[in-house]
Backbone:
């Protein structure tokens, strides 16, 4: 075992996660995200463990890229580090998909009631993953030594917009919900994973700059 970062369960002798495909449904009434995170490894795994960071996550299921269930254990939570999520990988596994729900008091998420916003009509959600709070949103190797690319799809109320620290791909509206898709091709540290959902509009400041805020 080689834990180079004292604030992460990531083990340097275990497979390295290099990319994340993330789908999440934002539920304002319950203040939770219903999500699925697919973690792709740098190389095919050998039989053995993969330790991930988590905090307050309710794990529903874990499967590998062959569709097989992945055995896992979720340890008791530690006040600073959160809970170690330990997966038992099979030979040749290249990715795993973790289905889970965040906690209403997830340390990275700030849920605002309409009365707390400038407009006073719609709720608002924003994330703050620095320094080690990404683990309360996504189970991953939450350390700056593990930089990842990601693709994300956020399902939000159709009256709201979602923003991410990534490149915008598309917005698809279906009835009373919308799916916002984003892509980040440059590897970044997990603490830079960021998003917001609310009554948001943009205003151009120049040919290369834009500001997003509540219309009011």
Residues:
């Amino acid at each position: 075992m080689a834990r180079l970062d004292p604030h992460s369960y990531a083990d340097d002798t275990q497979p390295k996660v290099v990319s994340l495909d993330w789908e999440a449904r934002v539920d304002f009434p319950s203040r939770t995200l219903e999500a699925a995170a697919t973690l792709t490894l740098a190389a095919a795994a050998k039989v053995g463990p993969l330790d991930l960071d988590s905090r307050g996550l309710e794990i529903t299921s874990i499967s590998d890229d062959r569709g097989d269930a992945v055995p896992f254990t979720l340890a008791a939570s530690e006040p600073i580090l959160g809970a170690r999520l330990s997966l038992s990988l099979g030979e040749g596994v290249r990715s795993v998909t973790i289905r889970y729900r965040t906690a209403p008091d997830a340390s990275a998420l700030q849920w605002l009631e309409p009365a707390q916003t400038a407009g006073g009509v719609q709720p608002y959600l924003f994330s703050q993953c620095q320094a080690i709070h990404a683990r309360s949103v996504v189970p991953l190797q939450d350390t700056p030594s593990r930089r990842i690319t990601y693709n994300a799809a956020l399902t939000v109320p159709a009256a709201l917009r979602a923003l991410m620290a990534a490149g915008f791909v598309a917005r698809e509206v279906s009835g009373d919900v919308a799916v916002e898709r984003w892509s980040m091709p440059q590897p970044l540290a997990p603490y830079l994973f960021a998003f917001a959902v609310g009554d948001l509009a943009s205003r151009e400041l120049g040919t290369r700059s834009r500001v997003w805020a509540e219309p009011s």
The two ends are 53 Å apart (CA to CA). The chain has no helices and 16 strands. The mean pLDDT is 97. The CA atoms of residues 7 and 81 lie 6 Å apart.
